[in-house]
Design brief:
By secondary structure, this protein is an all-alpha fold. It is built from eleven helices and no strands. It has one domain. Helix 1 packs across helix 3, helix 1 packs across helix 4 and helix 1 packs across helix 8. The longest helix has 67 residues. The protein is globular, with a radius of gyration of 21 Å. The two termini are 37 Å apart.
Length: 417
């Protein structure tokens, strides 16, 4: 039994390595072959995909991981069948909203005249989100071989497509979205064949729907604010400094992509673990568990900080070429930023476990307002350095507020020391 659990955990880790490694390699290929300006344009367009992904995380995925984990096995299939129908509904609504947004955006800025690229963005967004839903479906069902299968199709597939377009010297923004779209379409269709459909009573469907609404009503607004606060500096940098600045920031984020293996694993597994610990043992053991996870992460970040401090220029030059080495020092900032991201991830999942989703809305509202106040002077005075300084300040404020809310609700961290 123990060896089976270990094998399952190793499959999850292998899958996260696949996803993060593929995204890391994709970032390198796009930065090298699209150029700094082209990569920056792609990064700005990808923010649209991430915006709708954050809404899906709030309304579909977070409730499914947190509430579904509390359900007994005999009702889990019914619950997941209803969630699959909700995902279909969400996707149809998404297509309509995204098309409307892209049509209206042109009225405010001529740069948003995307032509036929709009169709590529809509298709990629729709199937990327469906793929993300299927990933969580297989995780909660503990079907990790199926998870690994669909991720192999999508993430290895898009790398192979991109390499082919590079080989025939036809890589541009449209070809990038074509490669990503084709990969996620194939993985989603194959994944859907493995989804179990179970009939359930209308009363239970209504109950699940209302429970989702109640759980996620603040998370939806929170996700919008979180997307805004998290990307506000990048969006303003694109306006004030140009696509090149966005490209540089994305290069730094991509270089730190090794930590996405850790973050993706935690985002998928911790809501389940936290919910089970809190349900059975309440706050004391959950506090101890969070402290152990923080110490584990701190040791990892300290080790990598030493490597970055010694070899930052060599790392950037090796991955992206010598044109990027003058910005290698930004990696120092990002080591601290990612430590704070890790810490806030632990605290944010705890807040969701306690179902204090209204508090997440409040903090993201405060963070967005503070970003609006400081963003323009920081970028005007410090230019690209102002972007990373502002992002760092945002994460520090975020952690302070989360800690305060958890303390109010009985989750005491480190005070015994």
């Amino acid at each position: 039994m123990l060896s089976r659990i270990k094998n399952k955990k190793s499959l999850v880790f292998l899958d996260q390595m696949l996803v993060s490694g593929s995204n890391f390699l994709l970032g390198i290929l796009l930065a090298r072959f699209l150029g700094l300006d082209g990569y920056g344009q792609f990064a700005l367009l990808w923010l649209i995909v991430l915006f709708f992904s954050s809404l899906q995380l709030a309304y579909i995925i977070s409730p499914m991981l947190t509430l579904g984990s509390k359900k007994k096995s005999f009702v889990l299939d019914q619950y997941l069948s209803i969630m699959t129908y909700l995902q279909f509904f969400f996707t149809v609504l998404l297509i309509f909203c995204l098309y409307l947004f892209l049509e209206i955006a042109v009225l405010f800025n001529d740069k948003w005249k995307l032509g036929d690229l709009k169709i590529f963005i809509i298709v990629v967004t729709s199937f990327f989100l469906f793929h993300e839903y299927l990933r969580r479906y297989f995780i909660i069902k503990v079907q990790y071989y199926k998870l690994l299968f669909i991720d192999s199709i999508s993430y290895i597939g898009q790398i192979l497509f991109i390499i082919y377009f590079i080989y025939i010297d036809s890589l541009d923004i449209r070809m990038v979205f074509s490669a990503i779209g084709a990969s996620f379409i194939l993985s989603s269709l194959l994944g859907l064949t493995q989804v179990k459909r179970v009939r359930s009573r209308e009363e239970y469907k209504k109950l699940v729907f209302l429970k989702n609404i109640n759980f996620s009503k603040w998370l939806v607004f929170t996700s919008i604010l979180q997307w805004g606060s998290g990307n506000f500096f990048i969006i303003v940098a694109g306006v004030l400094l140009g696509n090149w600045a966005v490209g540089i920031i994305r290069v730094m984020q991509n270089t730190m992509g090794i930590f996405n293996v850790l973050f993706l694993s935690l985002e998928n597994l911790l809501p389940i673990s936290f919910a089970r610990i809190y349900n059975s043992e309440k706050s004391k053991n959950l506090s101890d568990y969070i402290e152990k996870l923080f110490l584990f992460g701190f040791i990892i970040f300290l080790s990598f900080f030493i490597l970055v401090y010694l070899f930052s220029s060599d790392i950037i030059s090796l991955l992206y070429g010598k044109d990027y080495t003058e910005y290698a020092y930004l990696l120092y900032y990002y080591m601290f930023i990612y430590l704070f991201i890790y810490t806030s991830l632990l605290l944010r999942i705890t807040i969701r476990t306690l179902e204090l989703t209204k508090q997440l809305f409040k903090i993201n509202l405060y963070i967005l307002l503070s970003n609006i106040i400081i963003v323009f002077p920081l970028i005007k005075i410090f230019e690209i350095n102002g972007i990373v300084i502002g992002i760092l300040i945002s994460h520090i404020l975020y952690i302070i507020y989360l800690y305060y809310q958890l303390k109010k609700n009985g989750i005491i961290l480190y005070e015994k020391y």
